[in-house]
Amino acid sequence: MRYYRGGFDVTIKPDHTPVTQADQEAERAVIEILGGALGDCGFLGEEFGAKGPQDRRWIIDPIDGTRNFVRHIPIWAVLIGLEEAGEVTAGVIFNPVTDEMYSAYRGGGAFLNGERIRVSEVTDLAQAWFFHAGLGIVRKAGWWPGFEKLIDATLSQRGPGDYLGYGLVASGRGEIYAELDLKPWDLAPCKIVVEEAGGRFTDFDGRPTIYSGTALVTNGRLHEATLALLRRG
Fold first, then answer.
1. 136: which of 33, 146, 161, 201 is 20 to 30 A away, CA to CA?
2. Domains in the chain, please, with CATH?
3. Are 160 and 168 in contact (CB under 8 A)?
4. Predicted confidence band at 204 (pLDDT cuts at 50, 70, 90)?
5. Within 10 A of 191 (CB to CB), how many other CB atoms are there?
6. How many CB atoms lie under 10 A from the CB of residue 41?
7. What is the model's pLDDT at position 233?
8. Rounded CA gap, 17 and 33, in Å?
């Protein structure tokens, strides 16, 4: 927050995404704190990669939404997920600007600032809200026809992007969120929060993975219908 409210340097990484000293220092802080508390866990972070044992590890995105951070748009968050034997078992999503924290652990439910959250009960696509992130990559990656079908099939469409789309679906304020060009650190805590809120998380091919680069979350009731529209061919 000191950097966000003050100033920072922006560097463009080889993948053409921005990074600031806030990203790097935040990841170091997370590793130091969690490493001291649970020394038997490894780490996978956006800025510094993998270190330590990888069968039980913390997956970290120090700032999900760095582009928003750079433009002082208050839609960004710290993402931390715990992965054990390939399954995400706990996660936290924290936005320091709005002081909102989503949290979940396997079998324990999902929460927003300590209050239990649940997905909506909407069963009709025509009454659903569809959230998305940036649309340019959708067209370039060849998924635009499916997105066009979802736009036509749903009641309302909004583009909050990043962590917020997952939080809105998990808390029942929308039914569908689709995003692509993703890494596991973008998704680890989002998956467990949505699932523990009663929703469903898959990639665009219907697989419950954070490693394929695409993500579709719904309230569960609309998942198959959404996949059918999104599917290529």
1. 201
2. 2-116 (3.30.540.10), 125-230 (3.40.190.80)
3. yes
4. very high
5. 25
6. 18
7. 59
8. 26
